[in-house]
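Task: sequence design from structure.
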């Protein structure tokens, strides 16, 4: 395991991140860990066109009581970006499960932001014995909840995208147009290929078209926490109520925050998550 030189998302006081690259059969996956090895495991999964760095402001709040594990999904961040491998969500989930196996993790609470919540759901479907509970942050329950973007914000129309295209695309990830978008967030998009960008977006759509997340989660019977910024500009925040159909689910709306509450207000986002994991996390033996 190597130690990174720091993280551009860090918001002061965070320790250096222990990181490594694990070679899987279908591509290298970048992994970073923080917190005590014997603490309950918490796997954080980023959304489309992002990376593990999007969680960095949250990490110092979570490592007091958890072994925090973050990965870059295949095609994203510092993981491999092959043109000839599957980016379907069940395959992304399978890789996440292999990573936890390699790290010796037998049980984990899995948290996903945006499309990362769909990957988290797929992981629970693939490995129900591994996932003890799920937390979804601004994850649209179905395609009906999607807010169609203006054409300028729909996504880069050329590759590599211009800075203006990147900022228009990223701006809908926050509650207000004047939000200072972290440069590293834009670098995550720049670091993708045209193929990985379009293919991973299509993979999420395909997964949601097959079956809505509340239906999948009801069948799983896992404890569920849903956190949703009320001012989301990508998914209707009113759709968070769809998750109430999942028996025992807990839904927390965060007024004044948008699609990325983990970046806009880490403490407010961490509060319900920590209360949830205090009940459902499993300590390592």
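Answer:
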């Amino acid at each position: 395991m190597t130690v990174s030189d720091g993280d551009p998302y860090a918001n002061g006081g965070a320790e250096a991140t222990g990181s490594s690259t694990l070679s899987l059969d279908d591509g290298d996956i970048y992994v970073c860990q923080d917190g005590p090895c014997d603490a309950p495991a918490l796997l954080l999964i980023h959304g489309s066109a992002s990376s593990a760095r999007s969680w960095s402001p949250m990490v110092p709040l979570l490592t007091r009581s958890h072994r925090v594990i973050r990965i870059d999904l295949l095609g994203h961040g510092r993981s491999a970006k092959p043109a000839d491998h599957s980016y379907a969500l069940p395959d992304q989930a399978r890789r996440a499960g292999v990573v936890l196996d390699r790290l010796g993790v037998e049980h984990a609470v899995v948290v996903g932001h945006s499309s990362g919540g769909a990957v988290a759901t797929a992981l629970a479907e693939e490995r129900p014995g591994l996932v003890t509970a799920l937390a979804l942050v601004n994850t649209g329950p179905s395609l009906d909840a999607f807010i169609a973007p203006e054409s300028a914000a729909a996504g880069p129309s050329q590759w590599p995208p211009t800075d203006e295209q990147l900022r228009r695309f990223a701006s809908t990830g926050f509650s207000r147009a004047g939000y200072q978008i972290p440069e590293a967030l834009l670098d995550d998009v720049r670091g993708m290929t045209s193929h990985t960008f379009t293919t991973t977006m299509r993979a999420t759509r395909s997964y949601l078209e097959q079956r809505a997340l509340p239906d999948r989660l009801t069948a799983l019977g896992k404890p569920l926490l849903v956190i949703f910024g009320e001012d989301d500009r990508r998914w209707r925040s009113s759709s968070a109520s769809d998750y109430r159909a999942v028996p025992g689910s807990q839904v927390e709306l965060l007024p004044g925050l948008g699609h990325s509450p983990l970046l806009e207000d880490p403490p407010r986002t961490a509060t319900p998550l920590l209360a949830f994991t205090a009940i459902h996390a499993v300590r390592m033996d």
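The chain has nine helices and nine strands.
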